[in-house]
Amino acid sequence: MGNIKLYKPHPKQREIHDALETDIKYCIVSIGRQFGKTLFAENQAAKWGLENKNWKVGWISPTYKQAKKVFKEITKALADCIYVIGVNRGDLVIEFNNGSIIQFYSAEAPLTLLFAMSLLSLNLRHGMKC
After folding, report:
1. Which domains are assigned to the chain?
2. Mean pLDDT throughout 101-105?
């Protein structure tokens, strides 16, 4: 895969990125204001989508407006990326040529989240890679 420049994380962000590269099962962090949480998570989601085959990366924001804002920021950052093969602005989905997607959800619509989780559960039960 060619090189794609996302961002330069500060040392504490790098620490979390590195932890996510291990085979840990859960990663819980307590982070204050002005840490760069959104920028950190946007870049991690893009990295997972670009580097892993057939992954379904989910982004859940408290409101639809916030989900759409992050969707726009990531699509802008990946605008010239040859590995992005589809951007669905209606469903807030970014599709990569390796079969991976980033899907954006709002916590305002709990039924949508339940549906997404049921698909994940169904895929896991049938041994499919999610």
Report:
1. 11-125 (3.40.50.300)
2. 93
